[in-house]
């Protein structure tokens, strides 16, 4: 199988969109936080917590969509902690974010051990199944890639669309963007910077957790340690790559997913016999760094990103 | 202009407003009222408490005591939203605009319920266009605010207030950032607003503007209300006295007694940077006991010369001599060692570190030396003593040496910088726009100190874009144009018009 064959295969494109889905959730979550002026480095841990919470809820007998809701609520709870510490208390967003990542990751692993003390192989749940959209799914290549995904993938795309709409087409989005650019503009218009920023971090963290839940409830069907595996950090880079715009960030997620799907398949070609597989694993990251360098030169960073806002301070 | 206004409807009343920041009482029992269709000027030096008072009125700060009434109803404290709803619009000195959004988006911010689909841009755009037409506030609604000039941004701020049906406009130092033409346009807008029954509070320390636009003046000094007078019943001179609390006399320097050149440039050139030219084969002597005034239109190489004297750039050709010794290496440290006292152009960005205390800022140029550092450790007691000395000798108004300098007004910040430079007993003083943005009291003070330093034998280079200031203070004048210097003109030898021709670049060919 060579490169052309890979690029023409339906399974490749289906994999691209599948791999991109959790990244899209979490990237939108991070983008919402950053657009409001808060860098949320809790993303990696919140994804782990979401992956575990969604999975364990379904394992305990809840319906799949309830699992998604549980994951989202758990993410929002961590988001609330992050928001309260960074916004009204104005603590360092780096320190709080990394702290949340460590806390959420450890809490998820701990809860896993408490819930399942004896198991060696992680138990499986019945995950979301690919939808069958009739004749749409039957279109060659495109059909399988676009219309043969699970419901969560479509939710991810909807979330991205909604993020764009809310940010650019509603008063709420206007206020949120202003909070990340010049909070005193928000304050001078009689709105609460604190409320908007905490709200953004809570909602954004909820989306991150759903991104994590995608891994256990759609991509794989069980929870195991290290499964998030740096995806959260990738999403932080994707926000920069997308210049803080939802559409470009989705493209970035698809691009990264494309490199990832490609490297898996390249490992199975003749090349894989010669080159160590670790090199292939590096490919998406190296290409992402290159793309990031090229794309983010002209990016407009939200001017008040990482700047705490203290009312009444001169 | 003020007569008969007492009978009119009172739209705003402040009563016994008191606000303290730590040990500093920024407002002390201030009360006054504003009538419909009136321009009330709030006059006072920097740090007199004008902005604090207006921030209380607008709900950014909560007053410790006192109350605010708008249209007869008490205004709940600490809520900008309540002030906006009551019809109070504020144009902040530091604009509250989001640069990455359009004019229209900035105006719409906070005007619609948050939980609503759609922004209603169409109707809003029509309304903004009508307002900008009615009030003479030309600005494109779809332009990104980040790409606008300062004057345009101010128009957006005013439009924001008008869009929200403000009946009372508060303008905080609106002309500080405007060119004279833009200021004229602003006054035209204000007159239109008055004709429509709005009332205006105009915060300023520029007397001629206050006399031109205001009906009534309220004067603040050290946080207290010290006078309230109709502009018709007063004049600039009396207002200035009220503001400063004393008779003001412009500094009248004695004749200079020039000594030897302490710094000489011979054919010195520096590299240009972007749009600003470098220096082109400059000859310059700064003599002991003499103020050399550098006149010129902004951006003609003043920055390059200031950077050269500060040690920030080194000459690329020519010879530079300090105290008659040629300079080999030239860095800021060398400049300090050569006892050049530096008063930088931008006191916020290069003059001070905003979040450092006064103590830390006071020793920024000398922290490595005795007595502030001993065997590599800071002696903060000595540093604090030094800061206290500057605070006392240079009349820096502040709660104390441990205050972060960002809390000080521009004038007080400048006094600290001046004190820091002069306490080091400099031989050469670089004063780059030393009084820009300061009020009269501070201007006079800074200028007197520079003259005193000259009389004690320092060589002063005064860079200013204000020709009046140059003419008043300089013993000799040089004009800079496109990186070149005019010959030296002794005091009184050239009229302002003649200097203006040199500033426009005429005469350099003959001189070269």
Brief digest:
The complex is a heterodimer of chains A (314) and B (512). With 314 residues, chain A is mainly α.
Record the SSE blueprint:
The complex is a heterodimer of chains A (314) and B (512).
Chain A: H1 3-8, H2 10-35, H3 43-59, H4 64-86, H5 93-115, H6 135-138, H7 142-147, H8 151-169, H9 171-181, H10 183-188, H11 193-219, H12 231-241, H13 246-267, H14 270-274, H15 277-295
Helix pairs in contact in A: 2-8, 2-11, 2-12, 2-13, 3-4, 3-5, 3-11, 3-12, 4-5, 4-11, 8-9, 9-11, 12-13, 12-15, 13-15
Chain B: E1 10-21, E2 24-35, E3 39-44, H1 50-57, E4 65-70, E5 73-74, H2 80-85, E6 88-91, H3 103-108, H4 121-134, H5 150-163, E7 168-172, H6 180-195, E8 199-204, H7 207-213, E9 216-221, E10 224-230, H8 236-244, E11 261-269, E12 282-287, E13 290-295, H9 302-310, E14 317-322, E15 325-326, H10 332-337, E16 340-343, H11 347-351, H12 358-362, E17 373-374, E18 377-378, H13 380-393, H14 410-423, E19 428-432, H15 440-455, E20 459-463, H16 467-473, E21 476-481, E22 484-485, E23 489-490, H17 496-503, H18 508-511
Parallel strand pairs in B: 3-8, 3-9, 6-7, 7-8, 13-20, 13-21, 16-19, 19-20
Antiparallel strand pairs in B: 1-2, 1-4, 4-5, 9-10, 11-12, 11-14, 14-15, 17-18, 21-22, 21-23
What does this structure look like?
The complex is a heterodimer of chains A (314) and B (512). Chain A is mostly helical. In chain A, 72% of the residues lie in helices and 0% in strands. Chain A has one domain (3-116, 142-296): ABC transporter involved in vitamin B12 uptake, BtuC, CATH 1.10.3470. In chain A, helix 2 (10-35) packs antiparallel against helix 13 and helix 12 packs across helix 13 (246-267). Chain A contains 15 helices and no strands. Chain B is an alpha/beta fold. Chain B folds into 3 domains: 3-244, P-loop containing nucleotide triphosphate hydrolases (Rossmann fold); 257-339 and 427-442 and 462-512, 3-Layer(aba) Sandwich (Rossmann fold); 349-424, no CATH class. Chain B contains 18 helices and 23 strands. In chain B, a hairpin with a 2-residue loop joins strand 21 (476-481) and strand 22. The longest helix of chain B has 16 residues, at 180-195. The relative contact order of chain B is 0.11. The model of chain B is unreliable at 1-6 (pLDDT under 50).
